[in-house]
Amino acid sequence: MNKIKFTIDGKECFAEPGQTIMEAAKANGVYIPALCRYEGLKPAGSCRVCTVRVGRGHMAACTQPVAEGMVVENIVPDLEDMRKSLIEMLFVEGNHLCPTCQKSGNCELQALAYRYQMLVPRFPYQFPVRQVEPVGPHLLLEQNRCIQCLRCVRGVKTTDGKAVFGSVKRSGKKKIAFDRDLAAGLSADAAKKAMDQCPVGALLKKEIGFMVPIGKRKFDQKPIGSEFEDKRS
Amino acid sequence: MARKITIEPVTRIEGHGKVTIRLDDSGRVVQSRFHIVEFRGFERFVQGRPYWEMPVLVERLCGICPVSHHLAAAKAADVIVGVGPDGLTPTAEKMRRLMHYGQMFQSHALHFFHLASPDLLFGADADPAIRNVIGVALKHKDLAVQGVLMRKFGQEIILATAGKKIHGTGAIPGGINKNLSLEERDSFLKAPDPMNVDKMIGWAQGAVDFFKDFHQKNKDLIDGFAAFPSNHLSLVRKDGGLDFYHGVLRAVDADGKKILNDVDYRNYLDYVGEEVKSWSYMKFPYLRSLGKTDGWYRVGPLARLNTSDFIPTPLAQKEFEVYKAYTKGKPNNMTLHSHWARLIELLHSGEVIKELLLDPDLQGEALLKKGRKAHEGVGLVEAPRGTLFHHYRINGDDQVTMANLIVSTTNNNEPMNRAVHWVAKNILEKKPEITEGMLNRVEIAIRAYDPCLSCATHALGKMPLEVELYDSRGRLLDCKKK
Questions:
Q1: Residue B352 in contact with residue B313, Cβ under 8 Å?
Q2: Structural domain of residue B468, as residue ranges?
Q3: Which residues contact B399 (CB under 8 A, 6 or more apart)?
Q4: Contact A140/B397, CB-based, under 8 Å?
Q5: Is the ipTM of this complex over 0.90?
Q6: Which residue, among B187, B336, B168, has the nearest Cα to A105 in the 3D structure?
Q7: Does the global pTM surpass 0.95?
Q8: Which of B10, B14, B108, B458 has the fewest CB atoms within 10 Å of its CB?
Q9: Domain spans of chain A?
Q10: Is 3.10.20.740 the CATH classification of the domain at A4-75?
Q11: CA–CA gap between residue B399 and residue B79 (Å, rounded)
């Protein structure tokens, strides 16, 4: 089958038929910032951080299939500023206290905030009142830090394939909820996997805490996106 | 006419305090109070948080000695995960000790060189424009440089053990998250002068000698200023030796009689009570056996050298013997001798750091242990400023349901009030005018206890003080600002 030819920020790229812009970008060594996307999970298009421009249209790179001759704009000032504002909105919408968060250094939201050099959000803090909820014997759900990326809804399943998490309510009241019976059956390994899937410090496998020393954490050595951008340069 | 003198910093945050002194119609002091008007609320807002967050969360209480809170909380969490307080691996315990003694070293150096030395070098009546760390740097460059580099050395030790110089994550429930690499070790042992441990010990010895010399020339001030008898409390090693990281709880009275005889600190609630007074957010701890009125005690360097039988390193032990001989072996109740005791501890910390660096256990791989889970944990350490208590209870979901923190400055609450009262009675009473030098003497008395507010109120020589004099009907008579 013939490959599809398209460009991202002027770079000539090739895609397999059916590939999304995000998948094709990755295959061509191009970084498109994203938050809700997770390798191996069906894309949700919920965070909009991967928004790119094709012609006059804005679209989520994680859900939009590539078409022949597409001219995709990715790392351009207005899109980057939009992404930064999305990150800022996520910060003010919840209670994200990096200094005492055990996910600090491994958190994708924090890593993107560093990428965009976010010093102070331009939006007012909402300071919502949220709780920490135990999820079965091995997990905690820290609602203060949840950004509703739906990775856990898509990715955390029981051994017979049932989804443990779902979202309830709508708009500003929307939150992640879980089935207590199914959660009770989650193993320690499944809990660790759930924690790794969560981009922020919302899902915490119990008693892991700060086991990884500062300097050895995921983003201590390499900033987010650098695995692609280093290759490109 | 009756007057009320208020010494109040402008802001309420970061450990600022307020002093009020009431004078009657004849100018006699009728009441003096040292108020802590900050409110931190840590004990409340840690509720609901997972217990393994405590060492990293509560250390945010302070930017000067966060390691103390980090380690006290970690020791409490050790008990919760079933390995505390004596069950850590040698690598974990020694890494934590290195972190703690590194902190002692930097904090004591900071206090003496940056906060206390201006008063000693220039005197309480000197112009505030020079009576500060900048003044020390201009007039006594060597001393100022030593202060900066000793603090840096201690901070580098903390970085190597905790991952950050301030607010690290090294100590975790049941152990430590890293060991010390050989490169890190050698950067402290073999670095060119002055940033190696031998030079640091030499400088610490020099600081002790400096103080002894100053003492010889200023005995009236050092011995007499704000001296008063008190009880003293600290952790001591099981054999009675000085230990900042772990031990049993001992208290002695002003004559050296043991009030608490090496008890297990996990039962601290049986021995220590806390009284609340309406005019201060800071509680007043007391020894239950002596009651609220007489049970108050001092903590910190002065108290530690009163409770300990010996110091387990040679140079510091030699200085300890000289120090003890001065009071003929009896407890030392002279407030300004805190500086002397602090410098002996600085020297001891340097020696312990060297001992630990030479110990191959620091390169061990066994970092963590786990035992049978408990739902309550108590952890104590000797912080630079004195005994620090952390106590947590958790629920079945690992969330904290109760936290009780008795911080060093709280333990020293009543002694600081006594010291302020001493100054009010002996310096301010019946004086027609309250001078800047007199006010500074109030600060010197408080500063000897190195409370958490000391840096905020002195480091740049611009303590935000406002003093107002009121008559008995509340009319403002005079106002002085600096």
A1: yes
A2: 3-40+412-481
A3: A132, A134, A140, B47, B48, B49, B50, B51
A4: yes
A5: yes
A6: B168
A7: no
A8: B10
A9: 4-75, 84-221
A10: yes
A11: 15
